[in-house]
Amino acid sequence: MSQNLFRVSIRFDLNNPEHAEIVSIIKDLNKSKYTTISAFGIEAIKYYIRALSDNTLTNQGKKAVDERSADLVTNKDLDKRIAAYDKDIRLFIYETVMGCKNHPPITTPPNTSDPPETGGIDLTQCDSVMKDMNSWVGE
Question: Which uninterrupted H or E stretch holds 24?
């Protein structure tokens, strides 16, 4: 047997039901599958490590997970942020449009045949837009 070993000892408290159950299983190991308690322990530890998908078993793994998680924003976070700004956005749009009502209407400049600049907006829809925005004020 190699002398390049790392030894660790485990102490079980037989008054603790979970510990007692583990000791019972270790004592009754199938020797054809696990020839030693070390072989069983190694398989159990490897299985546990693979089962941890979040990689928080080691300090280094936890640090990496924490660093990645710090930059993540969930859909729930975004929904909260949008909801917080919803009323402010509606008020800004309302005030902007109401401010535009105080300006002269868009017309064709004199002595030109160029159509007015509307930014591609269908101005015939203004009445329904104004009704929608007026309904926001009551919210």
Answer: helix 17-27
